Amino acid sequence: MLSQKSRYAIRALQHLADRHGQGVVPLAEMVAAQNIPAKFLTVILSELGREGLVRSQRGREGGYVLVPTPAEVRIGDIIRLMRGSIALVPCASRDPHEHCENCVPESACRLRSLMLQVRDETARILDSVTLADPFPTANLELAGGKP
Fold first, then answer.
1. Is this prediction's pTM over 0.85?
2. Is the pLDDT higher at 98 or at 88?
3. Closest Cα partner for 130 from 9, 22, 10?
4. Domain coordinates of the chain in residue numbers?
C-alpha cells in the first residue's frame, strides 16, 4: 500500500512541478492547495531537500522550488525515496532486499515469484511517468489486457 507520506510527497512535488520556473512557492499555498498538514509537509520537503529535489528559501518571501525539471523526476523514484521500495513484500524488494519472516526458503516460495512480477510491472509503470506527464486517469493497459 502506498504510504500517506509518499502520497503527500507526490502531491507536493506535482504542485511544485506545476509552478516550475515561476519562482518560490510558499508553504502555505501548498498546504491549502494539496490539503497536507503543514508540519508533515515541512518534514517531507526537508527530506526531499536533502535528496536534492527541492530547494528552500527562508524569509517573508520564502518557500520552495523544484530543483530538477519536472521531466527528470519519476514517480517511482519519489516512492522509493519516501518508502524505500515499491515491492509489496520484503523478499521482492531489489534494494534493500530482505527475507520475509516466518516464511519458507525463497527458492521454494511460490508467492515470492508472483510478487517479483508485481514489483516489476509496478516499477515499469511508475518509472515511465514523470512530474511533467499528465497522469493517466483511466484505462491503463496492464499485462494481459485486464484491468
1. no
2. 88
3. 10
4. 4-66, 75-133
Q: CATH topology for 4-66?
A: Arc Repressor Mutant, subunit A (1.10.10)
Where are the extended beta strands (E) located within the chain? 54-57, 63-66
Q: Name the one residue in this structure whose C-alpha cell is 521454494.
A: 108
Beta-ladder partners of 31: none
Is the previous residue joined to 134 through a cis bond, with omega within 30 degrees of 0? no
> Phi and psi (nearest 5°) for 123?
-60, -40
- As a whole number of angstroms, the distance between CA 126 and CA 84 comes to 14
Lowest mean pLDDT across 4-8, 118-122, 142-146:
142-146
| Separate counts of helices (H) and strands (E) for the chain | 5, 2
